[in-house]
Write a structure and sequence with these properties.
By secondary structure, this protein is mainly beta. It has two helices and 22 strands. Strand 15 and strand 16 form a beta hairpin.
Length: 391
């Protein structure tokens, strides 16, 4: 079984060279300072890796997935893919520091950006519908004796697929019976290479699989949406200004309509709704800042009882932002690093902390967010290292 069950296994992985150390350095938003209690992305800041050039590109309201290999993504590298070799990768330890004046105290949050929706223009006040094309695909074969299906292509990293993921099937000739094209099914993960299908999310969780009676003919294809955390468990959303042009002069209520990780549709941001900042600058997570009604931590609040977002279905700013644009990113929070003293590194040893050893999936797109405890000058610098291990 992949992963680690003992310190001896960790020592063995280290001895076998199954580790990667990634040094990083990022600058804060280059166009404007932050005030206390604001959160900003460090996506667009200079450093290593360089500034992203993706979050203000692409078709408006279309889901765009992000991976460590996405061109111009500017995400932190973590040693490449390992799951095809039967391994799981984890974050073992890390450090972060800032020597820039007036930056600390504050908090760095390490996140995996699964994908995003660009919203432009932002003059509409309606709940604008998104487009969620099931763009991840893998071919497969079916076994009538076991009802197990086996992936025959791996470009889209099907080893990341989790039980409960909504998916569809298609074929060049005939599907395995009784599967039907353009029909939602829910995946039952068997292992990195195989799966079964269920007719509902509840059946998938219960392990009640569809009885496959024929193998079909031609090439069979499975399609799904998210590249990682594919059922949406633990996935949250942030809304941020995505380029150098500030947002217009407005303070709109912000809300999302979404499908939760239990695949229930019609979920919505609860009241009191987050309120966007007027003239929000590049990288600002626009509902963070001064305390009070409509101001929140960096993630958008979820409807009561929800444990994650499988897809976002509508995005709304209730009054026109007049100008500019923003993006809604789907993220998984991996770790936080409080910085309290200038020049003194915050260090984390995830082997001995809880939760222990955060999982780093193949394709993970790692980025930093910064939460300002005090005013943060433009182009303030941060640096550190991330240490990964797989086994």
């Amino acid at each position: 079984m992949a992963g680690f069950a003992s310190n001896d296994q960790i020592i063995a992985a280290m001895s076998a060279g199954q580790t990667w150390q990634q040094e990083w350095s990022k600058n804060f938003n280059p166009t404007a300072a932050a005030v206390a209690n604001e959160w900003h992305t460090l996506f667009r800041g200079a450093g290593n890796p360089g500034a992203d050039a993706i979050f203000n590109t692409g078709t408006s309201l279309l889901f765009q997935s992000v991976e460590d290999t996405t061109a111009s993504a500017g995400c932190i590298q973590h040693g490449g893919n390992v799951q095809a070799s039967g391994f799981q990768k984890h974050l073992l330890s890390a450090s972060a520091v800032s020597a820039a004046a007036t930056v600390v105290p504050g908090t760095l949050a390490l996140v995996d950006v699964v994908g995003f929706y660009r919203k432009t223009p932002i003059t509409s006040t309606a709940a604008d519908a998104t487009t969620n094309t099931l763009g991840r695909t893998a071919t497969f074969t079916a076994d009538t004796g076991t009802d197990i299906m086996t992936y025959t292509s791996t470009t889209s990293l099907p080893s990341n697929l989790l039980t409960g993921t909504r998916c569809r099937v298609s074929t060049t000739t005939t599907l395995p019976s009784p599967l039907v094209a353009a029909t939602d099914y829910y995946l039952i993960r068997v292992d990195d290479s195989t799966f079964k299908l269920a007719t509902s999310y509840a059946n998938a969780i219960a392990g009640t699989a569809i009885d496959i009676t024929t193998t079909g003919s031609g090439t069979q294809t499975l399609s799904w949406l998210l590249p990682r955390y594919t059922n949406g468990a633990g996935v949250q959303a942030i809304i941020f200004a995505n380029n150098a042009t500030p947002l217009g002069a407005a303070t709109p209520n912000l809300s999302l309509g979404y499908t939760n990780s239990a695949q229930a549709t019609g979920r919505a941001t609860p009241t009191v709704l987050p309120i966007g900042k007027t003239a929000a600058s590049n990288s600002h997570i626009i509902y963070t800042g001064a305390t009070g009604t409509g101001k929140y931590n960096f993630t958008m609040p979820l409807q009561a009882g929800d444990a994650g977002i499988a897809e976002i279905n509508t995005i709304q700013n209730a009054t026109s932002y007049v100008s500019g644009e923003y993006s809604v990113a789907m993220i998984k929070v991996l770790a936080k690093f409080p910085l309290s003293t200038l020049g003194l590194a915050a260090e984390r040893n995830f082997l001995f902390e809880m939760p222990s050893l955060p999982r780093i999936y193949d394709g993970a797109a790692l980025y930093w967010l910064w939460g300002s405890g005090v005013a943060t000058p433009a182009s303030s610098g941060f640096s550190g290292s991330l240490n990964f291990i797989w086994g």
